[in-house]
Write a structure and sequence with these properties.
about 140 residues, two-stranded antiparallel sheet, elongated
Length: about 140
């Protein structure tokens, strides 16, 4: 592993651990420094260890946190939907160039694409659907 890649991996692991600790404490990550000297309660420690165990099983961090940022907004996500990918923001940019007033999102998943387009396009209307009832529940919650 080259030095740059190793450094990026360490930064990623550190960020993941900070996110896990914030999740265990039930606080926002930006408040973590204020709580850094406080020991975890047994309940918080169990949550933290559970988070780490699930991450070691390669569960996406966003599923562990139950949320994912996409196009400047936070969306609920879980194992019932695919994570919105950063490259999907390119799709949003292209769709916004079309100035569509009506939007149909087939396989909506979390609903992040439809909801982002609706938020970015005043007056637009849209429908999202998915064969998965569980995914529709996530989209509806978003």
């Amino acid at each position: 592993m080259n030095e740059g890649r190793a450094r990026r991996r360490r930064v990623h692991l550190r960020r993941t651990a900070r996110g896990a600790r914030a999740q265990a404490l039930g606080i926002a990550r930006d408040r973590l420094t204020l709580e850094s000297s406080r020991a975890l309660t047994p309940t918080e420690e169990n949550r933290f260890e559970g988070f780490i165990d699930r991450r070691l099983m390669r569960e996406p961090v966003s599923h562990l946190l139950g949320r994912r940022e996409f196009y400047g907004r936070e969306f609920a996500v879980n194992a019932d939907v695919l994570d919105p990918r950063p490259e999907t923001e390119v799709l949003i940019e292209a769709a916004l160039q079309e100035h569509a007033g009506k939007i149909l999102d087939l396989g909506t998943g979390s609903g992040c694409i439809l909801l982002t387009l609706l938020a970015e396009t005043p007056g637009a209307i849209g429908v999202g659907t998915d064969v998965s009832a569980a995914a529709c529940d996530v989209a509806r919650a978003n």
